[in-house]
Amino acid sequence: MNHSLSRRDWLRISSAAAAALVTAHTRTLWPQDRPPAAAAKAAQLLVRSENPFNAEPPLADLVADEVTPTERFFVRSHGPTPQVDAKSYSLTVAGLVRKPLTLSLDDVQKKFAAHTLAASLTCAGNRRVEMARLKPISGVQWDAGAIGNAAWTGADLAEILHAAEIEPGAKHVWFEGLDPIPEKDGSEAPFGGSIPLERVLGAKPASASGGKPAPGAIVAYAMNGAPLTADHGYPLRTVVPGFIGARSVKWLAKIVVSDRTSPNHYVAEAYKVVTAGTPEELAQTEPIYEMPLNSAICVPAVGAKVGAGRVQVAGYALPSGSPRAAVRRVELSADGGRTWQDATLRGEAVPGCWRLWEAEPTLAAGKHTLVVRATDSTGAVQPREFPWNLKGYLYSAWHRCEVEAA
Ligand SMILES: Nc1nc2c(c(=O)[nH]1)N[C@H]1C(S)=C(S)[C@@H](COP(=O)(O)O)O[C@H]1N2
Ligand SMILES: [Mo]
Questions:
Q1: Of 81, 129, 209, 376, which one is least surrounded by beta carbons within 10 A?
Q2: Residue 190 to residues 78, 125, 240, Cα–Cα distance (Å)
Q3: Helices (H), 202-250
Q4: Quick check: pTM over 0.85?
């Protein structure tokens, strides 16, 4: 951080002016005018909805690489994709801070140290299609591919907040995007997130092999070594390792430090584990932050016919979002969960990051149910079952895959 920055450098604008900027300098992109790069990406993904654009990779492709290529990284957007003009773009930092900031993309890249961290991003609705078998759930019918693992480069959010000088009483950090999401009443509102300040300032996920603690959250401008694509939040997004994807806000335009959680719909109402969804139940339920321990079988596909004998099985496991949790063990059963064998783990045990795994059970001719379960370094074991909830969030029961060997 360059501390010689003078006050004059930080242009202050009101939120009304910021709203005007949004309108003047972004153009929303609907599927019919997707640029070639986005169209190429769509070609590699299973498109769950065109408008807004929601897509996930076929599961076999997903586990082909430990670092998910950007073209194969799922996209989850609630509204149209804004095309942001980086020249006129700015990020404001306001709320419980002594020095509100207005930062250009260049400021974020040059005035703060660059951190590159590996982090998996997982949609809270990942595996919803399985939970929906318990009882139907509306929303994007995600298979187990609403997850990806990328190298993200950006500024430590803690450094940005320190530059703004956090005031006493601050407890939460709100994020607001530039995407105008149509509301039921015909108006538009941006997507928003909120995370506890504690996650930004303290309890940082360190790599399991020791070394320097990683930031708890970054304001990222690059994904896998290239500027963010429009689908993934260009020019800036937050990345909060271990938290549900919804807290990693794309097209980030505003950060607000507060004594409470954000009133944005996606914090106050959506992204809560509820069963009835009454206003009372929603008011009493905390927003979801951390992902639970999870794993999935990606190869073979559910229902596949395989050759009898040794069968190649592969998938991923995700540690819980607790700052020190990393994947320690993955077990595979070829008999519906009666007996288990250890899978071979690839890569390192890193908090906030998935681990790919492989196993080679021997299958006699006939039908078999493959089942996977993971254990993380906190000792937590993935549960056999996971209860249904209204929005279909956090499904993390043992993943089952019926196959037929011949
Ligand atoms: N501004 C904005 N940020 C957003 C969203 C959105 O719709 N608008 N979707 C969120 C959700 S629910 C997820 S899972 C992740 C998905 O990130 P990706 O599209 O880069 O994979 O972005 C999050 N950030
Ligand atoms: Mo999500």
A1: 209
A2: 9, 20, 19
A3: none
A4: yes
